[in-house]
Amino acid sequence: ESHERIGIHKEDLAFDRMEFDYQKEQDKYQRERDSKQDDREDARIRYEKERDAKEDAYRRERDAKQGMLDDARIMYQCDRETKQDAYRHERDAKQDILEDARDARDDAHHRIMMLRNMRSVLLEKLDRND
């Protein structure tokens, strides 16, 4: 009986040892799995940070380019308006000069006609007086 108990006890110890070894393997496997999961999570976080940084850099560059484009568009518009204003002023000045010249011509023509008329009247008076 004591041999039997010793045999059972040895079997119990062997079984306990097997359970302990099995649990130890399970714990090791779980730690490895957790470590791999942590590594994947760290890699995902690094990837997201890099992606966000690239997107921010892209947005800043795009906004800067858009700002330069807007500035160029405004400068072009101002330049165009300045040229249009200068053209209008030049055109108006030429138109004023042309109108003044026409008025002067019309005045001169009117005076010539008046002088011719007066000459005709004077010549008629002279002819009558002779």
Count every beta strand, where a strand is a DSSP E run of 2 or more residues: 0
What order do the SSEs take from the amino end to the carboxyl end, as H and E? Answer: H
Spatial extent as radius of gyration = 55 Å
User: What spatial form do the alpha-carbon principal axes imply?
Assistant: rod-shaped
Q: What value does the average pLDDT take?
A: 93
Strand content: under 5%
Distance between the termini: 188 Å
The level of helicity is: over 70%
Q: Please, how many helices?
A: 1
The largest sheet, given as strand count, sense and whether it forms a barrel, is:
none
Low-confidence parts lasting 5 or more residues at pLDDT below 50? none
SSE class: mainly alpha
Describe the protein in words:
The chain is mainly alpha-helical and 130 residues long. 98% of the residues lie in helices and 0% in strands. It is built from one helix and no strands. The protein has one helix at residues 2-129. It is rod-shaped and about 190 Å long. The model has no long low-confidence stretch (mean pLDDT 93).
